[in-house]
TrEMBL record:
Protein name: VOC family protein
Residues spanning the signal sequence: none
SUPFAM superfamilies: Glyoxalase/Bleomycin resistance protein/Dihydroxybiphenyl dioxygenase
InterPro entries reported for this sequence: Glyas_Bleomycin-R_OHBP_Dase, Glyoxalase_6, VOC_core
Gene3D superfamilies cross-referenced by the UniProt entry: 2,3-Dihydroxybiphenyl 1,2-Dioxygenase, domain 1 (3.10.180.10)
Organism: Luteipulveratus flavus
Length: 139
């Protein structure tokens, strides 16, 4: 961590882990069964969010939950993990109260702002971690 990181800066909270896939409903059904989690309202073939039981509030996580979601990709290619032409396909959304306030600490830790910023309303901003994986700060 950088010496310039403010200890008073808001810390992100892991909010949503999203897996790319060819059919969000099908993959969410598999993980829903495996984990015993339920799909949230609004599930469709393009995007599904699974929530842990009781909203994920536990003694270890009294402030809430981290959910797992599935996003359909039109030209899906199966990962070739651990390497190859199509390695793992995942990104993380990290929830913060204020993206602008949280950004300096993320950049000081070694992230870069991604050149592609698809948010039309500023509700999220895309970054790249030191290894090149994209992730988003969301508000």
């Amino acid at each position: 961590m950088s010496d310039t990181t403010s200890s008073n800066a808001p810390k992100p909270r892991l909010d949503l882990i999203i897996l790319d896939c060819p059919d969000a409903l099908a993959l969410s059904r598999f993980y829903g069964e495996v984990l015993g989690w339920e799909a949230e309202d609004g599930a469709d073939r393009d995007f599904v969010t699974l929530a842990p039981p009781q909203g994920g509030i536990t003694p270890d996580n009294p402030d809430g939950r981290t959910a797992l979601a599935f996003q359909r990709i039109e030209d899906w290619v199966e990962p070739t993990w651990p390497g190859g032409a199509h390695p793992q396909q995942i990104h993380l959304d990290l929830s913060v109260p204020d993206i602008d306030a949280a950004e300096p600490a993320v950049l000081a830790a070694g992230a870069r702002v991604h050149e592609h910023q698809p948010s039309k309303d500023g509700g999220f901003r895309v970054y790249v971690d030191p290894a090149g994986h994209p992730f988003c700060l969301i508000s």
